[in-house]
Amino acid sequence: MFADRLRRLRERMAAAGVPALLVTDAAGCFYLSGLTGGEGTVVVTREAGYLLVDPRITCQAREEVGHLEIKEFRGSLYGALEQLAAGAGITSLAFEAANLSVQQADRLKEKLPGITCVPVPEILAELRQVKEPEEIERIRRAAAITDAAWDEIRPEIAPGLTEKEVAGWLEYALRCHGADGYAFPTIVASGPRAAMAHGTAGERRLRPGDLVVVDMGAVYQGYCADLTRTVVAGKPDARQREVYAAVKRSGETALALAAPGVKTDFLEQVAREVLKEYGLEEYFGHRLGHGVGISVHEGPSFSHEASVELVPGMVITIEPGVYIPDWGGVRIENLVLVTASGSEVLSRAVEGWGE
Ligand code: ZN
Ligand code: ZN
Prior knowledge:
The chain is an alpha+beta fold. The protein folds into two domains: about 1-125, Creatine Amidinohydrolase, Chain A, domain 1 (3-Layer(aba) Sandwich); about 135-345, Creatine Amidinohydrolase. It contains ten helices and 17 strands. The chain has helices at about 1-15, 25-35, 60-65, 75-90, 100-110, 125-130, 135-155, 165-175, 240-255, 265-275; strands at about 20-25, 40-45, 50-55, 70, 90-95, 115-120, 180, 185-190, 210-215, 220, 225, 225-230, 315-320, 320-325, 330, 335-340, 345. The longest helix is centred in the middle third of the chain and has 21 residues, at about 135-155. It is elongated and about 70 Å long. It starts with a helix and ends in a 10-residue tail after the last strand. Bound molecules: zinc ion (2 copies). One zinc ion binds near residues 226, 290 and 319. One zinc ion (ZN) binds near residues 317, 319 and 333.
């Protein structure tokens, strides 16, 4: 699996004229090395691959990583890079621009004066967009864990509980169903707070008739799930039902068109058109979706400028939302696998009011 990843990465490096690539971000490091915990640095050249770790990690690295040459270093990573470059004959080192701050990039150039350090577009991130069968299985499992936690706790969501209590019960259920961790802190936004697309769970107590937006995800063997459901604490009123139906139709319409060859911004446009029919489009203030994998937010992008053509093996979310100030919000998010013939919804959690 790793040999194949490295082979595909090297093809891309060759095409981009990159002789050696430095990977410092935790997700990229895990993808190329399999090292858990996110405390390594990977350097890939056309012929070799290295994992740089400090002495705390060496034992673990030897156990988890068999396909890269493990280089233990004490002190500065820059010193280790310099030594590695001298030994391996590296004179030019590329790094993914999106993964290094301006300050980090400046420091890299300053500390490695003998090596040309060049920012490159996201060649590794692009590779990660298309999942291998093994990765899809892990995401499938993360989604199943998330669905099970939601289905278990949803009927308990009732007036009187605080948002933090609801988040706590959900996170406990995720663990009980087998999550290794959480893709992000569980979002529970109730009542008028549901109008905030990313309202973190607070002290607010749920009141009868509140809309409650819950966004959550398990991590399983390094891979994330991402799920949003919206419920009402008590009975939904007519307006809540109407907005919910609009958001649901918006997502379903986009989903029906999700297939290889379709561009992500087209799906978003379709979802927006549906909300427009209900006069709700202006309240949809974020992208329709994003890719999910080792990171909960990764490629493909749904933005108009960086829109991507879907290919089989991509895992994306479709998550239309409507947020009306002082009223509340509704978001429905499903995890979707792009298949050879169309798409498959991985999220099976109960939707709607559960009536
Ligand atoms: Zn989400
Ligand atoms: Zn999402």
